[in-house]
UniProtKB/TrEMBL annotation:
The keyword Repeat does not apply. Belongs to the TRAFAC class TrmE-Era-EngA-EngB-Septin-like GTPase superfamily. Era GTPase family. The chain holds residues 14 to 179 of 308 of the full protein. Residues 1-166 form the Era-type G domain. It is a peripheral membrane protein. GO terms for cellular component: cytosol; plasma membrane. Residues 117-120 are annotated as: G4. Residues 9-16 are annotated as: G1. One of its GO terms (molecular function) is small ribosomal subunit rRNA binding. Residues 35-39 are annotated as: G2. This is GTPase Era. Its main location: cytoplasm. Monomer.
Length: 166
């Protein structure tokens, strides 16, 4: 199996950290500052049963409509039109208008996975289910996978969910 997988989400949810840990290299740039990833950055994962090209994207911005942000938003839209599978990355327990804006960009006919990142920061796991239900009510997801990109938790589960969609 092989194919292209886009990683999208609002700034700071951990998209670049996820790419880094998925392919095991410090390829994409991570930082606390939004906008670090101005361009698309790709990472190739080669395993016995699959070759996956992950495409990191800049965080989609809705609030600041300057030229750079508009260019980055176009980049996200173009990437989404091109890939086989989309990973919508959100932060556990945090859902806002910027997340909603990214969700709306995902083509309705494209397989998408909901990746709930930073579960290591979620003190009360009982809040996870209502959080997921709120997002899943807005779109069908092929799978919903809670992960910690930073700690490398559940990334194998994420890959397992991605592969059949390629
Ligand atoms: P991006 O803007 O979506 O690409 O986000 P980054 O990958 O640059 O990460 C933003 C911040 O969140 C960085 O300080 C990361 O170290 C942090 N981060 C990313 N993933 C996790 C995670 O699973 N757990 C925790 N606690 N922090 C994370
Ligand atoms: Mg980034």
């Amino acid at each position: 199996r092989c194919g292209f997988v886009a990683i999208v989400g609002r700034p700071n949810v951990g998209k670049s950290t996820l790419l880094n840990h998925l392919i095991g290299l410090k390829l994409s740039i991570t930082s606390r500052k939004a906008q670090t990833t101005r361009h698309r950055i790709t990472g190739v994962l080669t395993e016995a049963d699959a070759q996956v090209v992950f495409v990191d994207t800049p965080g989609f911005q809705t609030r600041h409509r300057n030229a750079l942000n508009q260019a980055m938003n176009r980049n996200v839209t173009t990437t989404l039109a091109d890939v086989d599978v989309i990973l919508l990355v959100v932060e556990a327990g945090r859902w806002g208008p910027d997340d909603e804006a990214v969700l709306k960009l995902i083509p309705p006919d494209r397989p998408a996975l909901l990746v709930i990142n930073k579960i290591d920061l979620m003190a009360d796991r009982a809040q996870l289910l209502p959080f997921i239900e709120r997002i899943a009510a807005q779109r069908d997801f092929a799978a919903i996978v809670p992960v910690s990109a930073q700690k490398g938790q559940q990334l194998d589960g994420l890959l397992k969910a991605v592969k059949p969609l390629l």
